[in-house]
Automatic annotation (TrEMBL):
It holds the Pfam family GDP_Man_Dehyd. GO terms for molecular function: CDP-glucose 4,6-dehydratase activity. Transmembrane segments: none annotated. InterPro entries: CDP_4_6_deHydtase, NAD(P)-bd_dom, NAD(P)-bd_dom_sf. Its EC number is 4.2.1.45. NCBIfam families: CDP_4_6_dhtase. Keywords: Lyase. This is CDP-glucose 4,6-dehydratase. The lineage of its organism: Bacteria, Bacillati, Bacillota, Bacilli, Bacillales. The gene is rfbG. SUPFAM superfamilies: NAD(P)-binding Rossmann-fold domains (SSF51735). Residues 18-327 form the NAD(P)-binding domain.
Amino acid sequence: MKTGKISRRFWAGKNVFLTGHTGFKGSWLSLWLHSMGAKVTGYSLPAPTTPSLFEQGKVKDVLVESVIGDITDLEKLRLSLKKAQPEIIIHMAAQPLVRKSFEDPVQTYKTNVMGTVNIMEAARTCSSVRVILNVTTDKCYENQEWHWGYRESEPLGGFDPYSSSKACSELITSAYRRSFLESTETQVATARAGNVIGGGDWAEDRLIPDLVRALTKGEQIKIRNPDAVRPWQHVLEPLSGYLLLCQHLFLDGKEYAQAWNFGPRDSDARPVEWIVKQMLGRWPYQHPGYQVIRQDHWHEANMLKLDCSKAINELNWTPKWTLDKALDATIQWVAGYLEGKDLKELCVQQIDQYEAESSLE
C-alpha cells in the first residue's frame, strides 16, 4: 500500500499550471500549493462571482502569473503553457452549475467539452508536462438513484447538460491518453469529487452559498429539494486527493493514469434539509429560519453517493474531516468574513489545521 502522504518536499519548487484558479476550488488550491512552495501559474476567466474568494484571499499575490483567458481559446492557452513550462497541469476551469447548464447548454458544452479538448491538445505539444489531472465531478455517472456509491467503473452519462458535459470530458481525457499520451512520459488521470463546501463559495444556485447569503442579509432561506441526498465534503478533502494523485502520477507513472473518486464517508451523504438545519444550529446570530419551495423546476438527482474504495485502498487516501467538522469550518470562515478578518490568513490557518490532522510529510 502506498504512503497516502502529501509531501511538501515534492511540491516545493514544482511548476504547476492551474486552470480555473479564480474559482472557489481553484482559489483554495492556489493558496495550498503556494504554502508548500509550488510555483503556480493560473489560467482562467475573471472571478465568476462578486464577492469572490480569489479577491478576498488575495490569491493573485501568491501566483507566478494570473492569466485571464478563456479555456476555449486554444492559441492563447498554447502560448500560456509554453511560457509557463509546467511540470503538472491541474485542469479545473469549467461551467460548474447544473441549473445554469439548463439555461445556457451551448456555453456549458463549449466550456466543459472543448475546454478539455483544448487543454489536452495544448499540453501534448508542451514538452515540460509530466502530469495532467482533469477534475470532473461526481455527477458524471449515469444516475440510477441507487442508495450505494458509484464506482469508477460505472457507466458515464448525465440527465442535464452539465452532468453530460462532464461525462464527455471524462471520455475526451481517456481518448487523448490512449491516442496520444500513453506512449509518452506524460501521465493523465481524472478526479471525481462530491459536493464541496467551505468558506468563500459565493456561487449562485448552490445550497451553502445561497444559505450564507440569506443568513448574512437576515433573510429566510428557501430550499428546493429538501430530501435530495448529496456527498457533502469540505473543499480541502478532494483537493488533498488531487495533490496526492498528482504525486503518484509524477513518481509512479502509468499505474495511476485512470479515474478516481474522492468523496466523503458514506455517513456524510446527507439530505439538503439536514444540512440547512445543521447550519442554522451553528449560526451565532438570530435568523428567520427556512422555507421549502415546492414548485416545478429543472431536474436534479435525488440520490448521489460515491464509492471511494479505490482511492482508499490504492492511494491510501481517506477523508480527514467529518461533515460536522466541515460545517464548523465553513461557519468559522463566514464569521471571520463578517468580523472583517484577513480572509487569506483565515484560509491558510484552515489549511494548516487540515494538514496538522492529516498525514503530510
